[in-house]
Structures are given as structure tokens and as C-alpha cells.
Amino acid sequence: MNRYKAVVLAGGLCLLSACVQTNASLMDTSVRMARTCPAAIKLFSSPSKVTSEYHEIALLNASGSSMYTNESNMAGSMRKKAAEVGANGIIMGNIDEPSAGAKVAAAVFGTSTERKGKAVAIYIPADSARVQQACASASAGK
Q1: Residue-wise burial string across 124-135, b where 16 or more C-beta atoms lie within 10 A, e elsewhere
Q2: H helix or E strand, kind and range, residue 130
Q3: Greatest CA separation found in the chain?
Q4: Alpha-carbon distance 67 to 131, whole Å?
């Protein structure tokens, strides 16, 4: 019975956290940036959309169960990780969806399929005032 409770608890925690995990690979491990906040992270669809000079901070890789996540969950998880490494922007890459065949096979065999996303966390020096204001507003709203 204890194992059953553990499985139910783990499943509940997975649903609450939207089951997305994001890791960051720093571009330069000798540079440490001050943390920002997820509310201050701006999303860009491509490098050409970033209108100011920027520095690439980290590569972000996110994954989550395609059954319990969506693109918004993926972006939210990436925002949190980008804030942890001191970024104030993200250049989004692809979010890959499992094929319909993979989803059917997963349902038949009782397994899950994963949605995967890639992005680049960036720091835009000219955007630091906006970031401070966004983080102050976010912490005041808590």
C-alpha cells in the first residue's frame, strides 16, 4: 500500500509542476550572472527579433510528457531556468511534438511520449532597467 501512495503522490506532483524539466548548459562557465525573475524573461521567436545587442548565456533543453504539458508549460519552465542563470531573454527554438503513431503506441503499451524544446537564454544589457522593474513588480504582487 505504501508503494501505491508514493505513485499517487508522484503523479500528483507531476501534474502540479506540469511535468516539464529544463536544464541549462552555460556557454561560458567562467561567467556567472545575477539571477533575474521569470516575469522579466522576454521571448523572441528568432535572433532577428532581438533589436539590441545581446550575449548568449546558456542553451536550454526542456522535456515533458506530451500528455500533461503544452507549449505554455514548456516556455514557463524555460523562463524559470533562464532566470536562474541570469538571462533576461530567450530565443526560442523548436518544440518537437511526438508523432501520432508514437502517441498511439504509448497508449497501447501504457508508456508516455515526450514533448521536447530547445532555446538559447540571452542577456540584453540595454534591457536591464526593464528587468529590474518587472522583477520588482512581480515580487510586490506575491
Answers
A1: beebeeebeebb
A2: helix 128-140
A3: 57
A4: 33
Over residues 59-86, the mean pLDDT reads 88
The CA distance from 136 to 86, in Å, is 15
Q: End-to-end CA distance of the chain, in Å?
A: 38
Place of cell 545587442: 53
If you average pLDDT over residues 18-35, what whole number do you get?
89
Phi, psi dihedrals of residue 115, rounded to the nearest 5°: -90, 135
Q: Phi/psi of residue 125, each to 5°?
A: -55, -40
pTM equals: 0.76
Distance CA 74, CA 81 (A): 11
